[in-house]
Specification:
By secondary structure, this protein is an alpha/beta fold. It has helices spanning 17-31, 40-44, 48-55, 68-76, 94-99, 109-121, 146-154, 175-191, 206-211, 340-346, 351-357, and strands at 11-16, 34-38, 62-65, 83-85, 105-106, 126-131, 159-165, 200-202, 219-220, 243-255, 260-261, 267-268, 273-278, 296-299, 302-307, 315-318, 330-334, 363-367. It is built from eleven helices and 18 strands. It starts with 10 loop residues before the first strand and ends with a strand.
Length: 368
């Protein structure tokens, strides 16, 4: 008996790895600095191992991850570039951090003393960066306390501080505060004794890299920018689209005037309408909040409107203007023709959430 062929996916995300490399080159050109490629949250939903593998040959200074689970996945994938933990660690995680030579950021003296104790017990020294809280409010030493903390940690034999960083909370929303924050950070760095021992000074995320300049930083931490989206309007023209979310038309039906579409009957046809049912929904990460905000999809070279509420597994589109459409036709939910920023704005959210919300049942298909 011959093998039964596997059906193609109902919905999938096409990920252009050459686009990520192009966007990395753009980040390098803009910053003129080393790059920490932020690949947390499974590389913003694009696939942690695939993206890291694509960037591994590009002389990345660090891969930035959110937690030890992501660091562990990178290590198991054979990543050789240093792996940096962007957030604080739990006490139960720190022994593993040291064993794998992942770089933690230090936020409190308690954290630093525990790392020192564990490192000395293991006969090693842990390399780490100091985090300064210049306005984010979720971790780090306050600027006034940072110099003393740095000196105290330098006295701990089990720790070597090789860098210092902070985080921008509103570089894409509040330029006045952000410029003040850059000045405060630069002034702090310039005031530190032995500052040349700090090889890695970092502050700028994607918005910070695109819209601001620092006097002291040596490292940039692009995230969203790598995935082809600018967080600042009027910037990022050189970026390339990386992810395209796609599905197919499952069936096409002619419905009469006065017929409800989807749950709640929030849309009722006002004329005879050719309705296509598409095999994707909020169970795949396509946001339910799009309903009532005139979302569109791209099929057969044109935009067509969605009708009614997004359901868990399907959406419906008005194909009346597309008489040549057939079941099986490919549909773009976002990508080069339907920008992810547009979908996010209509859903009342941000591109970061859309990317990271694409669920595992959406197959990632890589090219480039």
């Amino acid at each position: 008996m011959s093998a039964i062929p596997e059906s193609p996916p109902r919905s999938w995300a096409e990920v252009d790895l050459s686009g990520i490399r192009h966007n990395l080159a753009t980040a390098r050109k803009l910053s003129g600095q080393g790059i920490m490629a932020v690949v947390k949250a499974s590389a913003y939903g694009h696939g942690l191992e695939a993206v890291a593998s694509a960037l591994e040959q590009e002389e990345i200074a660090f891969f930035g991850v959110a937690n030890v689970g992501e660091a562990r996945r990178l290590s198991k994938a054979g990543v050789r570039a240093p792996i940096y933990l962007l957030g604080g660690t739990f006490p139960s995680e720190r022994e593993e951090v040291i064993a794998h030579h992942w770089l933690p950021c230090l936020n409190t003296m308690e954290e630093a003393r525990h790392f020192d104790q564990l490192a000395r017990h293991g006969g090693t020294v842990v390399e780490a960066h100091l985090t300064v809280d210049t306005g984010m409010g979720r971790g780090g030493f306050l600027p006034a306390d940072a110099p003393a903390a740095l000196e105290a940690i330098r006295a701990l034999p089990g720790i070597r501080i090789s860098g210092l960083g902070s985080h921008l909370p509103s570089a894409d929303e509040d330029p006045v505060f952000t410029r003040t924050q850059f000045d405060q950070f630069d002034n702090l760095v310039e005031s530190l004794p032995h500052r040349r021992e700090l090889k890695h000074i970092h502050l700028a995320n994607s918005a910070g890299l695109l819209g601001y300049q620092s006097r002291t930083t040596t490292l940039a931490r692009p995230g969203l920018l790598l995935y082809g989206v600018s967080p600042l309007k009027g910037h990022g023209a050189d970026l390339r689209n990386v992810m395209s979310l796609k599905s197919r038309i499952a069936l096409i039906r002619d419905l009469p005037s006065g017929h409800g579409i989807s749950y709640g009957r929030t849309f009722v046809t006002t004329r005879p309408t050719k309705v296509g049912t598409i095999g994707i929904g909020y169970g795949d990460g396509y946001p339910r909040a799009l309903a009532d905000h005139t979302p569109e999809v791209f099929v057969r070279g044109q935009r067509v409107p969605l009708l009614g509420r997004v359901t868990m597994d399907q959406v419906m589109a008005d194909l009346s203007s597309c008489p040549d459409c057939r079941p099986g036709d490919e549909v773009e939910l976002f990508g080069p023709n339907i920008p992810v920023q547009e979908v996010a704005q209509k859903a009342g959210t941000i591109p970061w959430e859309l990317f990271t919300g694409i669920t595992p049942r959406v197959k990632r298909i890589y090219s480039g």
